[in-house]
Design brief:
Blueprint (H helix, E strand, L loop, with lengths): L2 H18 L23 H20 L5 H7 L22
Length: about 100
């Protein structure tokens, strides 16, 4: 790839990266659609919410088997306990049934 073409490709990539994230740029890329989108289709917030669902929710559910909702809300620093979702405790049965 020659230098001018590489510069135009990089310019286009940077332009689209910012535009896809809602940031206005002050230039027009020389290569409008040279590259397909790069990166994950989800945000950091999506990743954090997935982590909360997979890792934190089960722990909260287990804690609610031993601690009341209000106490757990205070421990988690939630001033308004309505922010704490309703979690149904997971009931497990032994071999007896």
């Amino acid at each position: 790839m020659e230098t001018k073409q590489m510069a135009a490709t990089v310019s286009s990539l940077v332009h689209h990266w910012f535009v896809d994230r809602g940031i206005n740029v002050r230039y027009r890329p020389g290569v409008a659609s040279a590259l397909s989108p790069i990166g994950a289709p989800h945000s950091d917030l999506d990743s954090r919410l997935s982590w909360l669902l997979a890792q934190v929710r089960p722990v909260v559910s287990r804690c609610l088997e031993h601690v009341d909702r209000e106490t757990l809300g205070e421990i988690l620093g939630l001033a308004d306990n309505e922010l704490l979702p309703v979690v149904t405790p997971i009931v497990t049965h032994g071999a007896d049934g």
